[in-house]
Predict the 3D structure of the following.
Amino acid sequence: MQVQLNNEMAHVAFGEALGQALQGRGRVYLEGDLGAGKTTLTRGVLRAYGYQGAVKSPTYTLIEPYEFGLQRIYHLDLYRLVDPEELEFIGGRDVLADDALCLIEWPSRGEGWLPEADLRVTLHVKDTGRLAELTAVSERGRQVVAELQALCGNEQRESAEESGVIQWI
């Protein structure tokens, strides 16, 4: 599935729809070049759970936890990971075994150590917007994609601010 995100507002709105579809659980691999919008998408996902604060990529800390009542979301950025085994030393096994939502940037850096994703989201810069490619890897991922299609419709969805358009391709 491909989705054209024409601007930042559409990007965040799509992230919010993705967050709703995920229902607070699963593993999502966020892939794309530097500046492709992985953290912007994460900001949208967090908004689905009521978070309105700033969202920074945990490039140096590797893991940024968020808690919303009983709901836990972990944002991981593995860009600076030298060896996948480093995840063991920072509690990665516990985080990934948790019944939580894990959003993982640069998952290729944890290859061989990370469990398989439910959903892969690959972001590409396209003109002034982004192109998001979603690939369901597990049954859970297929459920998320189906829920996302139901939330957004099959054609397009204008963001709440009406300043961006999510266009299904």
